[in-house]
Amino acid sequence: MNGFLVTFEGIDCAGKSTQANRLYTLLRDANVPCLLVRNPGDTNLGCKVRHMVKHDHMQPTSRMFLFAAALNDLCKRRIKPALDEGKIVICDRYTDSSFAYQVADAEEDFGYEMFVENVNRHASMNMIPDITFLLDIPEDEMRRRLGMRMDEQMGKEDIFESKSNTFFKKVRENYAYLASTNDNIEKIDATASRDDVAQQICDVFLQKHNGRAIQWNKPTLMLEKM
């Protein structure tokens, strides 16, 4: 594979989708071959799984296998073909989300962490991101942002959003563990402004991608284009 895989991670309302879209738009406008996908989603199976895991109550292990099925379908149908074509693939949630959330949600205590890691490794076809941007916000900030979003959209919390702050504290701890054990994870303070976060992401991306097969005119990658 000649491409470059970028993933965005973090708890709910951290700004993952916003920043993934901004990086994608930046690259697309610079005529860089790229693809934006979200997990779960962007395949027929992924869309069905997304609705199920957000709205249907089920056992944690059943939910974990559904996430894995959606990820495997996304990797085979969208991510790997794009990487084989040399594209930059930007993925909104990937294996780290599965680990952080499913381990936090687990009721089993028989080495569940290793079990989830092994399932994710097979589901992702062992495709490891070149960069993972971990957007970090405290649980209280997540609640504040979620409340604003619910007011704006007059919506209702899904199964994950309705979980307690204790659950999201565990999710953040799981993300922190992953960041401490994986050199490809760049932790970003997402309490900063959107533009500041975007600039940090752009700077790290340029540094990490430098020297790869796909090249572009770096001066075009300025914040005002985002």
Task: Summarize the helices and strands and which ones pair or pack.
Elements: E1 4-9, H1 16-29, E2 34-38, H2 44-55, H3 60-84, E3 88-92, H4 95-105, H5 112-123, E4 131-136, H6 139-153, H7 165-181, E5 185-189, H8 194-209
Parallel strand pairs: 1-3, 1-4, 2-3, 4-5
Report on the architecture of this protein.
54% of the residues lie in helices and 12% in strands. By secondary structure, it is of the alpha/beta class. It has one domain (4-218): Rossmann fold. The protein has a five-stranded parallel beta sheet, sandwiched between helices. The longest helix is centred in the N-terminal third of the chain and has 25 residues, at 60-84. The radius of gyration is 17 Å and the shape is globular. The chain starts with a strand and ends in a 17-residue tail after the last helix. The model is unreliable at 213-226 (pLDDT under 50).
In brief:
With 226 residues, the chain is an alpha/beta fold. The protein has helices at 16-29, 44-55, 60-84, 95-105, 112-123, 139-153, 165-181, 194-209, and strands spanning 4-9, 34-38, 88-92, 131-136, 185-189.
